[in-house]
Design brief:
Length: 373
């Protein structure tokens, strides 16, 4: 991670690199600020900068062996420490989950605790930094740095330490080896245990401006300027939130295309094309198939309301409305309830693992008959 890969925060980048250049980095630095503001990216970029063999112009070089190791999360003197789920009867340390962590961070460097927590698929268990992690870090920090001046611990979400862990960590944070740096990042600094918090030097990272979020979305995620502006406004400076809104709007666009396809081909009685359509929809997989059926039910409902001419009850995006103004007249008192039934039955079948291609083809055939009603 290079500083130039991170949107905005010019002032903080300068401050951090100047501290590093002057040899004034504290042994425990905390980047604190709201979710989705790129704090952990700044932490990673700073670690790479400190380790880089040829830093220049306020950034690492991106090409030396150290930078290359950093780019794959494999720098030998860098330790990632983060909250995880307890393993029954075994010491629980970050290293056991490092592959998954790397994968998700590489996919979305703005990843937050919520996304990480979902990975564990255990709704009632919060991720924590357990006391075993404190012991493990103490052990690893007892070795000298292998190839660099500093060993760096990148500590994500220090607020997830419990008291035992904090006590264990305290000694290595309070009286660190002279070659050790802790760089922490937190969305919730107020919940960090005071014993740890008071020993850090803090740098506050501000939320992104809407214009910075929009610029990032257009530049790095090929989102149109209009859409980027809308999404930025909805995400309150949280880039992670903006990225999940993009995912939702992409899925919605795909669902709309499939819905339009179904209705057009059913109206034209194109059985062969509907067979292919069923194969395509089944290819979405079970979860997305169910989400698509919910979407179909919603569109039928909205079109029925549109047909009844009840304004103000309608919740359609501009794209959905463009199709619906002509289509709504086909959804009426004679077929609306039966269409809901057909969709609901398909939902039950898919949820019960019936062959999705058959379920969707059956839905398509029934739609042909019901559109003529
Ligand atoms: Zn370098």
């Amino acid at each position: 991670m290079m500083f130039r890969d991170i949107p905005g925060h010019a002032d903080i980048k300068t401050r951090l690199t100047e501290m590093a250049d002057a040899g004034r980095l504290p042994h425990a630095l905390l980047l604190e600020g709201p979710a989705g503001s790129g704090k952990f990216m700044l932490a990673r970029a700073l670690a790479q900068y400190v380790h880089c063999e040829h830093p220049s112009g306020g950034d690492s070089c991106g090409q030396c062996p150290s930078c290359l190791q950093h780019s794959t999360f494999n720098h030998i003197d860098t330790i990632f420490s983060f909250p995880v789920i307890k393993k029954a009867g075994k010491p629980t340390i970050s290293a056991d989950y490092f592959e998954e962590f790397k994968e998700l961070m590489a996919e979305n460097p703005f990843m937050d605790g919520e996304v990480w927590g979902q990975k564990f698929d255990s709704a009632n268990t919060q991720t924590k930094i357990y006391v075993d992690e404190g012991a493990e870090l103490t052990r690893r920090l007892n070795f000298r740095a292998h190839q660099s001046r500093y060993k760096i611990v990148l500590l994500w979400q220090p607020e997830r330490m419990n008291e035992d862990t904090a006590n264990k960590m305290l000694k290595i944070i309070e009286e660190p080896h002279d070659d050790t740096l802790f760089i922490m990042s937190s969305d919730n600094p107020r919940t960090i245990l005071p014993t740890i918090y008071s020993r850090t030097q803090r740098v506050t990272v501000k939320r992104y401006e809407d214009s910075e979020v929009a610029e990032y979305l257009t530049r790095c995620h090929a989102v149109s300027a209009d859409a980027a502006e809308n999404i930025a406004r909805l995400s309150s400076g949280n880039i992670n939130e903006a990225l999940s809104l993009i995912k939702i709007s992409k899925a919605r666009k795909l669902f709309l295309d499939l819905f339009i396809d179904l209705m057009r081909k059913a109206y034209q009685r194109k059985i062969g094309l509907l067979r292919q359509w069923s194969v395509d929809v089944a290819g979405l997989g079970r979860e997305q198939s169910l989400a698509f059926l919910d979407y179909c039910a919603r569109m039928i409902r909205e079109n029925f309301i549109l047909n009844l001419n009840i304004d103000g009850l309608n919740y359609l995006t501009p794209e959905e409305r463009a199709f619906s103004v002509n289509f709504a007249r086909f959804i009426n008192e004679r077929n609306v309830l039966r269409l809901f039934d057909v969709i609901n039955n398909a939902r039950t079948d898919i949820a019960g693992n019936t062959n999705a291609k058959i379920v969707f083809f059956d839905l398509a055939i029934k739609t042909i008959l019901l559109l003529k009603a």
